[in-house]
What does this fold into?
Amino acid sequence: MSDLKSQVLADVKSAMKSGEKEILGVLRLISAAFKQHEVDKREDVDDETAVIILTRMSKQRRESITQFEAGNRDDLAQQEKLELEIIQKYLPTQLSEDEMMKEVQAAIHEANATAMSDMGKVMGLLRSLAGRADMSVVSALVKKKLSP
It folds into this structure.
């Protein structure tokens, strides 16, 4: 069992004992996502897979927050923000924008990218940042650097 998965399960037990219903609900969502992956793929969740699942869940929450705020549904947006906050506790430390920019510049240099047509090569090199950086932000930085 992966370290992240065992940590989530331990936190589920802790939240049950302390009666933290909101946190428990989010932890159960995470645990269910892990179990769903195991059933679908017929493989145990390792730490790398857990980070991918958690990253996907956090992206979904960010998109939901945007939609709920646009629809003036602050109550639902607050719930999504709480879920996002808890999910992010299990993700690796996020890179700052400066650190992302350094990674982008290094990837552009390594790929000898000069135009937008080279964006695929650059993003391929930056794929390892998934989980440590919001890839939509990374993509925007690459576009900004490669635009004339």
